[in-house]
Structures are given as C-alpha cells and as structure tokens.
Amino acid sequence: MTNVRLPAEWEPQSAILIAWPHAGTDWAPRLESVEETYIALVAGITGFEPVVICVADADLQIYAEARLRSACVDMGQVRFIEAPYNDTWLRDSGPICLRGQDGFKLMDFRFTGWGGKYEASLDDQLVGTLTGAGVFRDDYVQSVDFALEGGAIETDGRGTLLTTWRCLHERHPDASREQITQTLQSTLHQQRVLWLDHGYLEGDDTDAHIDTLARFAPDDAIVYQACDDPADAHHAELTAMAGELAALRTLDGAPYTLYPLPWAQPILDGGRRLAASYANYLIVNGAVLMPAYGDPADDPAAKVLAKAYPGRQIVQIPCRALIWQNGSLHCVTMQLPEGLLAL
C-alpha cells in the first residue's frame, strides 16, 4: 500500500461508529439516563452523515430502533450491526483507519481495558468482528502487538501526532520515549510525535488521554482545555500544559494557533469529581458535536469551537450522563473515513 497516512478527523467521513449501551455493560445502574444521551448523539450525527450502531443482539436492535424512531431520528441514516462488546467506548476499541492511495489499512492495536483496569476481551476482538461482518469496504487489517487506544492520539493528517507521556508510559512502562515514538511513527506513518508531559482531569481513568486535553484543528491550530480558576486542583497542571502547547511548532517552524476552552464548574457524583472536558468533542461532516454539561461555560465553549472550525455547525449534546463513567462524547465514537463503509 502506497502513500499511507492517518487522516485528520475533519476530513470527509463515511459514518460514525458507536455501540448501544445495555444492561450487560457498566451503564446498567444508569441505563435510562445514558440512553437519552445516545438518542441525542444519534440524532446529532444523522443530521450530517450515517451512523453505524453496534448492538449486542437482535432484541437490543429492536429496542434501540424503537427508541430512535420515537425520537424522530432519520432511520435512513442508521445502520445496525450485531457484535459482542464489553462496553461502549469505541474510540479506544474501534479501528484506527489509515488511508492509502489504493485503499485502507485498519490498524488493530491491543486493547487492554486501559491498562488492565477493566475486562476487555470482547472489545479487544471488535475490529476483527466488524471486519468479519463485512462492515468495511476494504478489509485489510493489520494486527499490532502494542497497546494503544484511539483516544490517546491526535493527528493533523499531515504527519504530526500529538499524545501524552503519562498515558503511553503507563501502557508501556518498560519502553523509553524514543522506543514508543519509533513505534508510533512506523505503525501510523507519522513524521514526528509531539509529547505533552502535563495535563490531567480528575475522574479520567484513561491516564490522560489526549482527546480530553488538546485536539488538532485545521490550519495549524490546537484546541485545548484550559482552567482559569487558581483555586481549582487542575489549575497548575493545565496551565503547565498550555505552556507546553505554546512552545510547540509546526513542521514549518511556526507556533500553533491556540484556542483555549473555558472551564466548567466542578460536577460531583457522590463526592467524586467527574471529567467534564469540552475538548472531548466529535467532528462530523459539516459540524462539530460538543459535549454540554448544563454549565454556564457551555455556550462560551461553543463559540470557541466555532472559531476553530469555521463553516461548521456547532451542536451541543448533553453529556452529564456520559461523564459518570469517566468519558465523554469523543470517547464513545469513532469516525470512519470516506469510502470505508460497505453497509
């Protein structure tokens, strides 16, 4: 395969891949509330492109379809595929798709349940399951014996990868930064890897996935989660991260245009703080779907994203239910590049 690269998320897409929550997942205690978020998410996606929904069995498909129809979702934009899964965080268990001049390469990295924190045997097989079911037009899959989640990496589509040392070091404690850099460059066809040493969110059990902290945007820009409250426990780390981002340079040697996102007030669940990051947004064809938390910072965050992604609609999706399980909007989705989908 020639001219292989990892596309940026804002490039044209075939569909968004998600998995419907059910009683056999960790969502069971709050299934009703998270289903409402999924209905809003599917409605938001289908306004712009198709969505492929993984369901555990035929009964769940019937149920999910009924819920979506009752919400007046455009079912002509919805495809269902039956596949077993442990949980619904498809950003981390779904395929990382490389585009070549003559097709696609689906990268099937090891998924370890974020370093062995959770059972993940079914999720680790998801790429093979979907490929075997004929979801993708090009079914060339490369299995990689290296633990990596899609939420741990960001790309500009032009050969630069952004990630955090905290996460990748936790997954590979015996590997040096140089060794991990070489693996990322070779498997994902990147010219370089940019590392952040600061930044974290309370309530995030991914060990500082980059998609909760900083995201590439078109025209050499980076959108990032800021914290302007000196009394907040995150202030020092996120301020240090902002300094790291300001010091980064493009391949041409210029500084990145930076878009700081506002900081939501603490959201607590039984005394546990939840990871309410606005950086965990999803880009679709013609729009950006952003997590909303019922916070005064929701609308200011939407204005920042409108500046970073001009010409795209900004659609707010209520995500308080998602952050109860430590992730948000981007975490439960995976984009499929244009031309990949066979359904």
TrEMBL record:
GO terms for molecular function: agmatine deiminase activity; protein-arginine deiminase activity. This is Peptidylarginine deiminase. The keyword Hydrolase applies. The keyword Lipoprotein does not apply. SUPFAM superfamilies: Pentein (SSF55909). PANTHER family: AGMATINE DEIMINASE-RELATED (PTHR31377:SF0). One of its GO terms (biological process) is putrescine biosynthetic process. Keywords: Hydrolase. Pfam families: PAD_porph. It comes from Pseudoxanthomonas spadix (strain BD-a59).
